[in-house]
Design goal:
The protein has a 6-stranded parallel β-sheet. It contains 8 helices and 6 strands, in the order ααβαβαβαβααβαβ.
Length: 205
């Protein structure tokens, strides 16, 4: 993150030690509703892939996953299931208001998370308020337009503070083929314990 880089420059260190302490992930409890489960072998395989289980056990400690599957295969359900397994405060990066609405509906449909525990962030003022608020949610739906606006106006430190102060341990990049600048900005500013990239249009990835 920028503050770690500046500290490195100012102290004129000769050896750069990887610092992963700047975000202490906040644990949350999310339970999937019992009536929802994987509907076919593909979904069961994807669940293993996302969590690093079964035949994917060699990637269990890898911090990033990319899930490129066709529309209708259940990317949203499968990702929500993984969020429940990881059990860390989560940010879902949304390209538009339609995606925000869909994620909110699907999270409340598939899990025991209450609507008030899902926080929507659209606009710089909302992000800044939440960066220093003690009102902690379980899942944040963050508009990518807000990210771009903050960076373009030189306020990227607030993005970092939001992730750090809210203990975000998992970030999901929805429709990764869209708004690449915003996704890039988040990747350069923040490292979370786990990241999953989603798209059904992988030709543009």
């Amino acid at each position: 993150p920028p503050n770690f880089f500046m500290k490195f420059i100012e102290e004129d260190k000769k050896d750069l030690i990887r610092d992963e302490s700047f975000i202490k992930p906040r644990k949350i409890i999310i339970e999937m509703k019992k009536e929802f489960s994987a509907r076919n072998d593909l979904q069961r395989s994807i669940i293993d892939f996302l969590s690093g289980e079964g035949s994917y056990s060699e990637i269990v400690d890898k911090p990033r996953r990319a899930l490129f599957v066709d529309t209708g295969e259940g990317k949203t359900f499968l990702t929500i299931n993984d969020i429940s397994k990881v059990g860390l405060a989560t940010v879902i990066l949304c390209p538009d208001n339609r995606a925000v609405k869909t994620w909110r509906e699907e999270i409340t449909k598939f899990t025991n998370v209450e609507d008030k525990e899902i926080i929507t962030i659209c606009g710089s003022d909302t992000l800044e308020n939440l960066a220093y608020s003690k009102n902690l949610g379980k899942i944040y739906l963050l508009s990518l337009k807000t990210i771009t606006s903050m960076v373009d106006n030189g306020r990227d430190n607030i993005i970092v503070d939001f992730f750090v102060n809210n203990g975000i341990g998992y970030k999901v990049s929805d429709e990764t083929h869209m708004m690449l600048k915003a996704f890039f900005n988040v990747e350069m500013l923040i490292q979370t314990k786990k990241t999953t990239y989603l798209t059904a249009t992988d030709s543009r990835r």
